[in-house]
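User: Hey, my collaborator sent me this sequence without any context and asked if I could get a structure. I don't really work with proteins. Can you help?
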Amino acid sequence: MLRWLKSLSSGGPRRPEHDAPPPVAGQAQDTGLPVSRDTLAAISELSRVVRNNPDAVEIYLALGNLYRAQGEIERAVQIRQNLIVRPGLDTGYKAKAWFELGMDYKRGGFLDRATGAFEQARKIEGDTEFIILELARLAALSGDFSGAAKHYASLDYPLAEAHYLVRLAQEAADKGQESDSRKWLDKALKVYPASVEGWLERLVRLRRASQFTALAESLEKALGLVQSRLRFVLLEGLLADAVHSGDAAGTSAEASAAASGAACLTAGPEMDRPFSIVPDRAMAEAVLPVLAKQEPDLLISFYAAWFAAGLDREQALVWLEKTLVVNSGFWPARLELLLMAARDQDLTPAFRTQLEFFAARAREIKRFVCRTCGLKREQVFFVCPRCLSWHSIGYRLVINE
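Assistant: No problem. I've predicted the 3D structure and written it out in structure-token form, which is a compact way to encode the shape of the chain:
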């Protein structure tokens, strides 16, 4: 194996299992993070060394990577191009130069040029994992979900392949191509039966069609197949879609905020519900019996309380208490219990105002976190926007997590 591939693999990705996230190649070079003084000093030193030793190809490549990290894409590109046209350059180094040129163009937003550069590296090295992975990502960035799915299939990454098959299903549905849409969705779940994206898309479609019996059956099956740490995404997604579609109870201001991308736990001016936005009765009555069959689980109990909030206050209370049995420090449950208790108290207007203020601020906390890099988000994600890890989402169980 060529030296540049060895250098990548020494500290880079390993072949994942079918239910593990694909590796992240080139991640350190492509983060766009601020450049430190150490990086600038390294650029200066490498530039000096290159001037004294113009044949040091590896140093040239390293210098180009540092330029890319600094955001000086033109200088990075110039280094790669100068290497590529150098007479007698070892084919391994030429492949590496093409690969890094693709990374440069990708960082600069020139996706077509990046694809062309990776294809040149592919002609020299063949279908290596690193090159195909970057081509898959570029296809996804370009909106070519079919190409992305095919690339991930060739890498035997069913998790990612299923993700883009679901995107194809959504795209076909938007165009009114229902038959194709069902075909892509069925294929996604066949390729990766634990696909949280695939099951969520199926559940959302059943909810929108008011097929609540089928929704309950599919939810029960999905909860048994999806990884336990990701099951909350199914329930969060159902609630978010209900709010976005206007099929949830709450003030008009709350519904508008949710539809525009705000977190579903948006606090309103009133405290007459344990959750400010709750799902419609038909969906809650379909979902709750399924959740009641599950083994004791913190987030399952919390979302069950959320679904119950629109039906029965006492039932919601019971579910919230169950969450504290599992984890007494779970702050979202304690917040809702506080608001439910406050409803029964004769509070002064000043105290109520202050309580509402702090409850509103607490509900603005970003509830989801990437378990790989720590990025916090207010909405569900399947691929971390920062570190590109797949299915790394978690629920923030403590505020300072």
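In plain terms: The chain has a mean pLDDT of 82. You can pass these tokens on to your collaborator as they are.
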